Amino acid sequence: MIGRADEQERLAELVTAGSGRALVLRGETGVGKSALLDHAAELALRDGRRVVRATGIEAEAGLPYAGLHQLVHPLLAEASGLDDGSRTVFDAVFGYPDFTGGGKPPSVMALGIAVLALLSQAAASQPLLLVLDDGQWLDDASTDVCGFVGRRLAGSPVTLLAAVRSDVASRFESTGLPELTVSALGEEDAARLLDQHHPALSTQVRRLVLDQAQGNPLALRELPAHFTGGSGDEMPDDLFGQHAVAVPRRLQHLYGTRIAALSPSVRAELLMGALDGTGGRPGQAPSGLYRMRDADEAVAAGLLDIEPGTGEFTFRHPLVRSTIVQMATPNQRRAAHRVLAQVHRDHLERRATHLAAATVDPDDDVADILEAAAESVTRRGGALAAVAWLTRAAELSESHADRSRRLADAAFIAGHAAQLGQAHRLVVADAGAGVAESPAAVIASAYQALYQNGDVRSTWRQVTTTIESLRDAGAPESGEVLTRLVDLLLAMSQYAGDAAMWERTHALLDSLGEVVTAESRLFSGTWSDVVRHGAAGVGQVEQATGRLGDLEPWDVTRLGVAAYHLDVLSQYRPHLQRVVDRELETGAAASGIVMLHLIMLDQIAVGEWDEAERCGRRALEVAVEHGLELFAMQGRGYLAYLAALRGQVARARDLQAEVDSWARPRGLGFLTQLADAGGALAALNTGDYEAAYLYAVGVTAPGTFQPYMYQAPRMLLDLVEAARHTGRAEQARQHALAARDAGLPGISPRLALLTYGALAMTADGEQEAEEMFALAEAHPDAARFPFDLARIRLAHGIRVRHVKGRVAARHLLVQAAEAFDRLGAAAWAQRAHLELRAAGSAPRASILNLASLTWQERRIADLAASGLTNKEIGERMHLSPRTVSSHLYRIFPKLGITTRAALRDALSRSDGDRMAS
Fold this sequence. Notes:
Layout: H1 5-16, E1 22-27, H2 33-46, E2 50-55, H3 66-72, H4 84-94, H5 108-122, E3 128-133, H6 140-150, E4 158-165, E5 179-181, H7 187-197, H8 203-213, H9 217-222, H10 249-260, H11 264-275, H12 296-300, E6 304-306, E7 313-315, H13 318-327, H14 330-343, H15 348-358, H16 364-378, H17 383-395, H18 400-416, H19 420-428, H20 439-453, H21 457-473, H22 479-496, H23 499-512, H24 518-528, H25 530-534, H26 538-543, H27 553-565, H28 573-586, H29 589-606, H30 609-625, H31 629-645, H32 649-663, H33 669-686, H34 689-699, H35 711-714, H36 716-725, H37 729-741, H38 749-762, H39 766-778, H40 786-804, H41 806-823, H42 826-838, H43 849-852, H44 855-865, H45 870-877, H46 881-895, H47 903-916
Parallel strand pairs: 1-4, 1-5, 2-3, 3-4
Antiparallel strand pairs: 6-7
């Protein structure tokens, strides 16, 4: 009954009204008409009514009065009180010996009058509900009588409720009885019904079922049993639009008999349309697809519709398309695919789709086309399709070398598509000697161990050994495989965050010489130690923004990670946001999760914290769904850091502890550093500077930036501030000078801002403090990092208040307070407002104010403060007094006041703070 509130209301009114009526429910097969009939029958029984049910049977559609007999038979025992005329009519129709008389069958009117009399007598002591299902199969004579009776029930205690299919022509269409259309469920209701009956479906299977079912409740309940849920490692072919999904027998029967009755030529047209995806979704013109011709016979059979705008044939329901394909023989399908491959000879990916299905024996030409199509589609978010095409290309390869290479490519892409189990199966499918130790097998197993279990050390050793073997063998064909192994090794080294592992990784890359690509060299520098090796990659990372659309998704994310370390991620974000959804749905899902992480990190940096929270939660949900525990923990680490920024200390500490307890035993320094960064920031929120200092020095000692600790430069202000507040002024100064001497300002804009801020905080004299603060303020990218800039302004404002007095400090403190307020950094905002109070400025409530008021709200506030009434304000601004009142209702909380009288003071305080700034 999900999504059927209107229908239930109509049926309840019909059944319990007390005056005889008739209603016909009309809807497509499986839409839920029988469920509504059951619901009505239950209502009637609860209301004390007698219920008589009948069902039309297709096999009896040619038997006169067979349907009427089902309705009348339970009541014939009460026919003894009927007059002789009515008894004679029943005797003639049904031939019961209890009745007298005979002769030819009566007219519809005579039989209808007799039925009305019988119903009236049967309902004399108890109201009666007649329920007729599958009315489209009722014989013509019975349908005519039901129509005659239904039109004459007014005022009687009898109600007639029938259900007929809208996709099957029936005589009920001419009865003139009132109808209620039962439509397919809307998107939300369909999703709710599916989730109620199949809550454990993976996102991909769930989406596929919703797409195929098109709101049909029967399909929503039946289809999921034929798909594999879980991680998505085993998905039906139709995920790529290449074949129809397997149709359960119960659903196939709905359309199978009508399809079987079509002529061979029409079935062939429908088969080609189905295999090419023609008209797969009602309401869409089949652009670029095969156009079915001469298929009016299928329209008459209720299988096709004709689009009004284009005149093209489209399938009435996706399940029609699926049933057509499933009923065709393998030879019929292959023949249709061969024709379609020729039709699409100028379209690489469509041609590849049909050639893959049409070809039986090994064929290198077809395999080459499939491989080219896989490469093309991967760059457009079709990694799942690429895996299927490469696997098929391997099957059609004439040489073992080509087969192995293509299976390795399929396994590599499958790994990035979060189908780690399938990646392993693909390389095992290679029957060559020693496959268990092949580079492709190493890559597949290493990704699986890393992504699912966070196993970085043993897999790092395995990958290192494999690279050394390839290097020593000097195999010329191993270039692409070697690059994949190198990039995997770099990812593992990054997650390990271990100096010794990084040193060995760099040494191994040096031994490979020119075989290592420029991109891998870039990743090696920026991912490992941006302080010592990263600055040289800035230009390369920025130049890459112009060609992101031509790269595979995993290469985009690798460059994005480099951009994150160099703090130029904002240049990548537009591309990531454009492609992330497609990668999560049909592309490289693992890369899609990394894209979400990168988007989140940039949103955190630029102050879009609400958006970052949503993005982080989505990334976590996807990672958990795919069983990628490494990414799930990484996502929790980022959420912990964001919670710490927002002053949600308890949540930050819970997430931090979860990440740390999982990552530290596994030696995942990347995550333990992230946890320490969140811990330090949470401690700073509560004023626990000693704990913050311990977290910070756990990453790097004061006065140095420990090699290969990526969080060390990012925690510059955390260490400096914690050291200053714990009486370690000398260590704070040493650390600020170390940042300057290490050349941090030349590496990235954010590190420049942090360095100048740290130098201003720890300066020995006021001149240096002012100069360093001026450099921070004047940096062209300072505004891109509002939280860092606000921290620096707050610290400098406190210093200025102590040195130059309250008035001089006020504008800095106002800027910091308003920035923290806008960001939602609660603890930092509170600290800034306390400093403002000490500087003699307004209390917190009046500082937020003007920044949060719209132009219209500010104008209304000014007029109200001047003493005008709501009516007078409305006349000036062409608003109603009620609208003015609504605006004031929203203005008061923003200004921290509760009465109209407080408006003038609140506005004047805010204006004073603005002028001071």
